């Protein structure tokens, strides 16, 4: 329902109004795989998510050759496919891939460490090449280097994730860091790294990055998220950087929305990322 809701809220129209040409590629179709038995009995919908991951990785790899793909979810397990597919493309282009993970959660579980069994909790670990997916998820053709990942807005981390993030060397800017330093300097430092290395930048935007007061339509709300102004600032800085090459919009659940306000906000934030601005700015400000 998430993609339909984003379309209904006018995503395509907003992009066209900004001068972009948009091709709606419709739905990715997964090919069902065999039933899979895993020692972690908590895992939910493992064969289905493995099939989605394979189909999305292939779609992301293909589309990223000549367009800026925007992937509409669906829950965040989608990004196991999109990030790994983009990583394969980046590898072929000989460009380092960076990932900005906008989320309340790092989604850095493996199939062995998740206790909820919800596979939207694992995509970043999978796309980073962590072990513990072999034989269940598609074999990774390329991964994103964990040192090139920046997770921003984090405020709910499980114990196993905390350990794995530190071991892997992921940059985590939690809400405390945002409170203390402001969101702009943290993002600016990351964008400067991407630019210095001539990298591609994939942005994975989970609705629960936002404060539930402005974005209620998500199943995993956590209080104390990014404000309306912080979120638009992030999007505007990303636009000004000229570095973003692909985007995920995930976790929107319209059944939980109030008069479409979350869907509308996600469309408006995407518009900011794609060039909508209040006033023209004389110089780049990131
Ligand atoms: N994409 C998300 N909303 N992820 C939430 C994950 C929450 C928790 N860490 C879990 O693994 O169950
Ligand atoms: Mn997430
Ligand atoms: Mn989340």
TrEMBL record:
Entry's cofactor comment: Binds 2 manganese ions per subunit.
Keyword Secreted among record annotations: no
Pfam families, per the entry: Arginase (PF00491)
Keywords: Arginine metabolism, Hydrolase, Manganese, Metal-binding
Cited InterPro entries: Arginase, Ureohydrolase, Ureohydrolase_dom_sf, Ureohydrolase_Mn_BS
Required cofactor(s): Mn(2+)
Annotated catalysed reactions: L-arginine + H2O = urea + L-ornithine
GO molecular function: arginase activity
E.C. designation(s): 3.5.3.1
Enzyme class: hydrolase
Pathway(s) annotated for this protein in UniProt: Nitrogen metabolism; urea cycle; L-ornithine and urea from L-arginine: step 1/1
Alphabetical list of Gene3D superfamilies matching this protein: Ureohydrolase domain
Similarity field: Belongs to the arginase family.
The protein's name: Arginase
């Amino acid at each position: 329902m998430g993609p339909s809701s984003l379309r209904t809220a006018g995503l395509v129209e907003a992009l066209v109004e900004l001068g972009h040409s948009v091709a709606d590629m419709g739905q990715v179709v997964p090919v069902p795989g065999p039933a899979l038995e895993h020692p972690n009995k908590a895992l939910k919908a493992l064969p289905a998510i493995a099939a989605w991951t394979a189909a999305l990785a292939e779609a992301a790899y293909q589309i990223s050759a000549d367009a800026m793909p925007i992937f509409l979810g669906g829950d965040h397990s989608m990004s196991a496919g999109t990030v790994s597919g983009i990583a394969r493309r980046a590898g072929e282009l000989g460009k380092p891939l960076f990932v900005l993970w906008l989320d309340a959660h790092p989604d850095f579980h493996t199939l062995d460490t998740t206790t909820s069994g919800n596979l939207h909790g694992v995509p970043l670990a999978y796309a980073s090449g962590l072990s513990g997916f072999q034989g269940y998820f598609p074999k990774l053709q390329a991964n994103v280097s964990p040192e090139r990942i920046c997770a921003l807005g984090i405020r709910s981390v499980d114990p196993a994730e905390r350990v794995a993030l530190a071991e892997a060397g992921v940059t985590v800017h939690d809400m405390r860091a945002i409170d203390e330093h402001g969101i702009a300097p943290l993002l600016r430092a990351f964008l400067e790294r991407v630019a210095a290395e001539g990298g591609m930048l994939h942005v994975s935007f989970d609705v629960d990055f936002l404060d539930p007061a402005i974005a209620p339509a998500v199943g995993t709300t956590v209080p104390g998220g990014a404000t309306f102004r912080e979120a638009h600032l992030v999007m505007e800085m990303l636009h000004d950087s000229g570095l973003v090459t692909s985007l995920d919009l995930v976790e929107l659940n319209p059944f939980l929305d109030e008069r479409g306000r979350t869907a509308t906000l996600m469309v408006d934030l995407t518009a900011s990322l794609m060039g909508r601005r209040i006033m023209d700015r004389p110089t780049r400000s990131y």
